Amino acid sequence: MNIHEYQAKEIFRSHGIPVPPGRIARTPEEAEALAREYGGTVVVKAQVHAGGRGKAGGVKLAESPSEARAAAERILGMQIKGLTVGQVLVTPSADIASEAYVGIAMDRGSQSSVVMVSAEGGIDIEEVAATNPAAIHKLSLYADPQLARQAAKIILQLYEAYLAVGATLAEINPLITSGEEEVLAIDAKMNIDDNALFNLPEVEAMRDAEAEDPAERKAREAGLSYIKLDGDVGCCVNGAGLAMATMDLVKHYGGSPANFLDIGGSSSPDKVVAALEIITADPNVRSILFNIFGGITRCDDVANGIVEATRRIDIDIPIAIRLTGTNEDEAVEILREHGFAAMTDMEDVVQRAVELASEPAA
Ligand code: GDP
Ligand code: MN
C-alpha cells in the first residue's frame, strides 16, 4: 500500500524524526488560509502516490497567501504519472543548505533490509543509481560532527518507523541541512507491505482509495493479485506460480505480457468478470490469454465468468483460452455454446495468444 507524504511525515514525527509542520488543503482557499496561518514563504506540494512531483510542477514555493492560493489552483486536479492530485500539503519553506538522500528498503537479493545514503539527494535517486552509482553509500556531506550525529540518529529513527509500520520502503529525499545548522526531513515516502496491514489498523486507516491507481484498486477490491506490465498480451491465470510460468512462456514465444494476474484459488464468475474488466481497460492489450488449471478453481466457474463478462462489457480483443482440470467438460460446453473455443495445451494457447497480439487490429 502506498501512503502520502503527509502521512509518512506523521509516522516519521511519531518516531522523533525532525519534520517541518504542515497541513492538508483540498481547495485553493484552504491553502491560502494555511499560508496566512504559517506566515512567510510556504511550499505547496501535490499529494499523490508518485515521486518526481517537483519535476512535474507539483511542488511550488509561495511567498504570500495569495501565491499559495494560486499555486494550489494550479496543482489541484493536475495529473502526475496518471494520478490526479486531490489534495496539497502546505508547509513552511525550509532554508536549504544541502540535500542528501536516506532510504531503507526491503532488498530481496540480500534477503534483508538495506540502508542507502547519498550526498546527491534532492533529485531522482534512480537516476543517480543509474548514472553515478558510486555516489550512493556515501555521506561525506556531514563533515560537521554535530550534524553527523543528528543524521545518524535520524537513520535509526527511520529504521524504527520502517519496522513499526511493516514498510518495504522508507525514504527521505531530501534530508536537508538548514541554514540554522539543523537536519530536517522535508520529503517523506513510505510503501507498506500489504501483508502487514491485518495487524496494523491505524496504518490501514491511512489508505486513500481515491488516490490509488484505478486498476490496482479494482483488483484489490475484487481479491485479485494484479500487477500491470507494459506488454500487450493480457494474462488471466489461476495461481501465482502458473501465472509466472505463463508470463515466461509468453516471453519464450516472442510476446510480452501486459500484466501479472492471479484470479486465486476459488474463482467465482464475478472475479473473472472483474479480471476481464481490468485487462480490457489497459489500452496496450492486443490479446487476452486465459490459462486455467482447475483444482479448487472450477473450470465451469471461469467459463461462466468469461461469458458473463462478454455480456456486460464490449470486448473487441481476441481471447485465447486454455482450461483443464475440475469440470473441464462442462466449461468447454459453456464456452462452445457462446462461440469460444478452448484449448488444453499450455504451449499451444500461449503461442496462439502471442500470434493474436501481433495481428493487425480488426
Ligand atoms: P519530489 O519531487 O516528489 O521528490 O518532491 P520533494 O518534496 O522532494 O520536493 C522537490 C524539490 O523541491 C526538493 O528537492 C527541493 O529542492 C524543493 N523543495 C521542497 N521543499 C522545499 C522547501 O521547503 N524549501 C525549498 N527552498 N525548497 C524545497
Ligand atoms: Mn523528494
Question: How would you describe this protein?
Answer:
The protein is an alpha+beta fold. The chain has twelve helices and 17 strands. The protein has helices at about 5-15, 30-40, 65-75, 125-130, 145-165, 200-205, 215-220, 240-250, 270-280, 300-310, 330-335, 345-360, and strands at about 25, 40-45, 60, 80, 85, 90, 95-105, 110-120, 165-180, 185, 190, 225-230, 235, 260, 285-295, 320-325, 340-345. Strands 7, 8, 9, 10 and 11 form a five-stranded antiparallel β-sheet that branches. Helix 10 links the parallel strand 15 (about 285-295) and strand 16 (about 320-325). Helix 7 packs antiparallel against helix 9 (about 270-280) and helix 10 (about 300-310) runs parallel beside helix 11 (about 330-335). The longest helix has 20 residues, at about 145-165. The chain is elongated, with a radius of gyration of 25 Å. The model is unreliable at about 140 (pLDDT under 50). The structure holds guanosine-5'-diphosphate and manganese (II) ion (MN). Manganese (II) ion binds near residues 173 and 187.
The gist of it:
This protein is of the alpha+beta class. Helix content is 37%, strand content 25%. It has helices at 5-14, 28-38, 65-75, 125-131, 145-164, 201-204, 214-222, 240-252, 269-281, 299-312, 328-337, 346-358; strands at 23-25, 42-46, 59-62, 79-80, 83-84, 88-92, 96-107, 112-118, 167-178, 183-185, 189-192, 225-228, 233-237, 259-262, 287-294, 319-325, 342-343.
